[in-house]
Structures are given as structure tokens and as C-alpha cells.
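Quick entry, no commentary yet.
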Amino acid sequence: MNGKYLHRVRVLAVSLLTLLAVACSWNEKGANREYTNTPQGNFMALWTIMDEHYCYFDLKKEMLGVDWDEVKTKYGESISDKMSDRALFEVLCNMIGELRDGHVNLSSAYDYGRNWSWKTDYPVNLSKDLRDKYLDKDYVIAGEGYFYRVLENNIGYLVVESFGKSISASRINVMFNNMALCNGLIIDIRDNGGGSMVASEFLASHFTEKTVTVSYACYKNGPGHNDFSKLYKNELSPAKEDLRWIKPVVVLVNRGCFSSANDFACTMKALENVTLLGDTTGGGGGLPMSSELPNGWVVRFSSAPFFDADGNHVEFGVAPDIRLDMKESDVRAGKDTYIEAACEFINDKLVNP
């Protein structure tokens, strides 16, 4: 991993360290330190942690009509010191569920409160059985969650199921050598729920010949809903010590692409030789952090918003360059609409570059 590539990671690290330092300073009198381990105390601690640290209140109010003060009143009426822990957990999960944010979760011994409406409310646009058919039996395992082969039409096909771990530079070099004669490359990240931003950025760094501004980020620097730092430019530099892919690339996306997969889509869309095809991604544009309630339950929340290269929020997803849905007729015929369209697009680029 070269020094220039690490620039973005360093910027984020410095921002997060600043965020943590500031968070500690405004939490000296924070509500979660004042409330006791009672239903009312835990309710107020959770509401205040979110109120001071969550980064998308204005966006959620504009897009979803969520007023956090009204949410407090609505769910506060359900809190009683006689209620059970399980009942309290349900109320608290419903409260933070109003934000419809996949990065907002509450963890307890009972369950893991979550909101998956970012993908469950939309078409799947993926048949894993069909994807396996295109990989066939001779696919190469390039790392945990990374699988590829050369399709019959001489187009490379890479499936990235997760960014839980990075693919190694040596395996990327082997993969590119194996696909050197291919007309282009399809990267299928459908239903990739995320993982490590470092992993997604490292893969993306092999698809550019120059340093490119791919996104922006800022962080909370105070307890107010609009207390943010300046915007920091996030630049992607080429992985100079490794092979790089300069032929056409099509990235397949659906609503199941979340968190660092959402970031990968945002990053790749900013590159010249890359086209996004499919449905808008599931979002998850806020960098997650965690805090603890008096009773030990842990709340995770979006703390630092990300924006695309044009300065647009990516919390609700990244729009594709080519919008497409899976066709039932194709599925019945054993064809993946996305993969077939990507192959056609790449072949057309050869004729009409």
C-alpha cells in the first residue's frame, strides 16, 4: 500500500481523533453521565447521545420528515419505571428506527436492533444462483469474499461479496495478469453489505492512473445538529507499485450495497473508465461510532457524513450511470440482466470508444 494511497486514510484518522477529542470535551456534562440505570434514565441517555452526536438530523428531517424533538415526546410517553427491560429495548429500537439508518443500531443481550429498510423495501435485483452460474466451477478464489473468472465472451468477471478483508496486492496482480487479454472487467458488488473502507479504497486504487478527488467528508465538532467541521477532500491515488486496470470497467450495484460498498460505488463512479450499472445503492454514508447507555447497552450511530465528488450526500445511496432492473424473462431463461447488459456495454465501447 503506497504512501499516496494512505493519504485519505490518514485524513480520516486525523478527523476521527479530533472528533473523539471534541466529543469528550462536550460530554463532560453529557446526559449519559447524569442519568441512572432506570428506564427513564436510559431513554434520556440514548436520546441525548443521538441528539448530540448523530450527523444526519437535518437531512432526515428534509427527506423523511423526522423531527428529533417530536420523536422524544412520542416515545417518552411509553417509558415507565415499571416496564421490563425487553419492553424498554423495543421502545428504544423503535425510536432510533425513525431515522431509517442502517448504521443506527442498539445492541443488548436480547437482540440487535436494526433497520434494513434501505434494502428490504426495494427490488433485490440479484439471483445468487445465476451469479454462481456465471462464475461456473472454474472460478478463482482471490481472497475472502473475492471470486473471479474470464467469461466466454472474453470479459473479466469479479464478484466482491464483502469488504470484510482486503484482497492482497499480489493477488490483484495475478488477477490482472490472468485477464490481460480481456476486453473489459465487470465488478459485481450486489448485496455487498460493506466491511472495511480501507479494503474498498485499496481495490479502487487499482483503477486509476492519476490522483482523483472522489468524495468529501466532515465531522461533528459540537453538540448542535449543525456543528460540523469544514469539508475535507478525499483523494484516491493510483496504487503505483501494483498493476492497474485501464480498460473499461462496469460496476454492478443494487440496494444491497451498503456502507463501505456504498463508498466503493461512490469512489469508482468518480473514475474516468468506470460505469455504474443497476439500481441506486443502499446508502450508509455516515462513518459509524458507538456509545454506551447506563445499563450497558451499546448504540451505534452515524457520526461523520460523506459526500460524493459533486458534494451530494450519499447517505441515501449512489445513483448508477445506467439504471436497470432484473427482467423475470431473463431469469427464467437463465440469464442475468445486469451481467448481460454490462457485457454488451463493454463490447460496444470497443466499437465506439
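second:
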Amino acid sequence: MESLGIADLKAIVGRIAAIMSEHRDELVRLDGMVGDGDLGLVMEKGFQSARAEAEASTETDAGKLLMRVGMRMAKDAPSTMGTLTATGFMSGGKAVMGRASLGTAEMAAFFDAFVTGIMQRGKAKPGEKTVVDVLFPAAQALKEAADGGQSLPAAFRACRAAAAEGLARSTGAVAQHGRVAYYQERSRGKVDPGSVAGTYIIQGFCDHVEGR
């Protein structure tokens, strides 16, 4: 697989929706330990709506399809994480508008804009124990793969590994945002629920590209 067409992107959104539903209770449990416990419900609802939007869409522009997915999520899952994820899809989609399919370079551009949009909206940066700790290194891995002329499967293998490493690093960080930040030093060693959700977004893309 050297590029992702409209059918691929629709399948990826559907796969992420299935992953979020599968891990809903886990995300609820993790979020309940440090937050208000609704993350799993928000991610499931947001991506179920995103899947419905993607499946019903007749859009032939890959960027516009991804933007529409984000807009639907923003409408149907207007919580903090839902809004941030929606912003990512809208920002990423805007960056690749005008293309019918997305190769390694375009997916690198999409994820760069995806995480940049989230960082700007959430006023967060790497190292602050948020979803950015997963998405930023994943985006960097895709950029490096694109700069090196790597295939899409190779790029997403690197992306998956970088996301996993980012999650591990974030667990050892001290939270700076959200309710978990109240724990201060006690947040060190606790898994950030948003970062876990971020790995599931990456997983949806990677699984499809790698044919899993």
C-alpha cells in the first residue's frame, strides 16, 4: 500500500471507532482514576459519529473528508478530549485538501497539522503528560520517514513505535493540564488516559496500512 484513498480513510475511521468501543471500559477506568471517568464514553461516541459521517459522505477530496469527520466529532462529542481530537482532524484535513489520495508525505503533513492543532487548542506541549506526548513523536516519525523516502507501511511502523515510546515517557512525567494536574508529583507513574486514547487513534491508521 503506497497511498490511502477515500475508501481507505473511511475504513480507518471505522477501525478507530471499533477500537474505541473495544477499549471504552478501559478508558473509563483509567480516566476515573485521575479525572471524571467519561473519556471512554466520549471517544466511543465521537468516533461512532465520525464513522457515520465518513460512511455517508460522497466527498472525493481526502482532506475535505477528514475535515468533515472532525466537524462531526466537534458537534457530537464536545468534551475536552472530543474537541481536541476534532480539532486535530480538522487541522490535518485542511493541510491535505485538494488530494484524492494520501501517500507518506501527505500523511506526514496530516499528522503534523493534527498535533499542531491540538497543541494550539489545548495550550499544551510535549512532556506535559497529555495526548501530545504520543501524537508529537508519532508525527515526527512520519516526517522523518517521508524525508527519507520510506514507503507508507514502513512509515507507519515507525509511527506506531514512536507512539508507544511516547506513552511510556508520558507515564513518568508530571501532569500539567486537567484534573490530573492536581496530583502534581503524585501524577508521576500514572498512565495518562488521553495518551492511551491517542495510541488507539494511531493504531487505527497503522493497523489498516499494515493490513492487520
